[in-house]
Specification:
Cobalt-precorrin-4 Transmethylase, domain 1; five-stranded mixed sheet; Methyltransferase, Cobalt-precorrin-4 Transmethylase, Domain 2; 10 helices
Length: 284
């Protein structure tokens, strides 16, 4: 049997009793730490708590021959694979479940909190009004992804909130910070020019969501703020009801004037889209 379990968002706090029980009974326990960061995660403390050795595996292993070898062993042994956050939110771990099913290996899935859902509670935004999330990645030689810009534009035209996940490269020890992400969005504006990113755009940055080090700040183009270490995420809200608008003012420190001005801009985009005047269109 293969157990795929989530570590959640902070330390060992979010490890469920059910997952801990499986870890204690497991023949082998693995953890991948390349899909996200878990502040204050102490694997030695987990080993002591569970009485089992926990081996860290890399992206190359999980996405390569190691996976198939592990699944073969899971036919007769109890193997646990741990993942930051929720293993099936914003990761590619569905492939692991699929490959296990192809081989007749039973899979137990034990979820934990993900930043995708936690950000709703952190900011007081309605989960039903979030649309497609997207990851902002660093430019590479010959590659500059404009996908985050097009996703934001599409979401705003429908009045919906957008969650930006930020690139993590565990091998290089790199985690994108919110300020860097905002600057990349400004560069995308310069390349596309649909007029949605400027000094008035309402970015809300969240650092270390739900942890004791959680920080929530409004972050505008050209400005900076002290957020502390990653993981960071960004949210650009769409249309806001009165409760959402007040939450952004109280929790994130947004001014009433900025919130009202931003909602007015989003409303104009929504109306233009309904009238067939949406302006720039994403390339097919």
């Amino acid at each position: 049997m293969l157990v795929i379990g989530g570590l959640g968002l902070y330390g060992l706090r979010d490890v469920t009793l059910g997952l801990l029980d499986y870890v204690r009974k497991a023949d082998e326990v693995f953890v991948e730490l390349y899909t996200s960061l878990v502040p204050d995660l102490d694997l030695r403390a987990l080993e002591e708590l569970a009485g089992r050795r926990v081996e860290v595996v890399t992206r190359r292993e999980v996405e390569g021959a190691w996976l198939y070898s592990m699944l073969e062993r899971a036919r007769e042994r109890l193997i646990v694979l741990l993942s930051p956050g929720d293993p099936f939110v914003a990761t590619t771990h569905a492939v692991i479940k699929l490959e296990a099913a192809k081989r007749g290996v039973d899979v137990v899935y034990l979820p934990s909190p993900s930043v995708v859902s936690a950000v709703c509670g952190v900011l007081g935004l309605d989960v039903y009004k979030f649309c497609r999330p997207v990851t902002i990645v660093r430019p590479r030689p010959g590659y500059f992804s404009l996908t985050p810009y097009w996703v934001l534009l599409s979401n705003l035209r429908r009045g919906l909130h957008t969650l930006f996940l930020l690139e993590l490269d565990a091998d290089e020890g790199y985690a994108m910070r919110a300020e860097e992400a905002v600057e990349l969005m400004r560069e995308m504006e310069g390349r596309v020019g649909a007029g949605i990113i400027d000094e008035r755009t309402l970015f809300v940055a969240v650092a270390c969501a739900t942890s004791p080090r959680e920080r929530v700040r409004v972050l505008k183009v050209g400005s900076s703020t002290e957020l502390g270490p990653p993981p960071h995420v960004l949210v650009v809200p769409g249309l806001l009801n009165p409760v959402e608008a007040e939450c952004l003012q109280v929790v994130a420190g947004a001014s009433r004037e900025d919130v009202e001005a931003w909602v007015g801009r989003v409303r104009s985009l929504v109306l233009a889209e309904r009238e067939g005047e949406g302006g720039c269109a994403s390339p097919s």
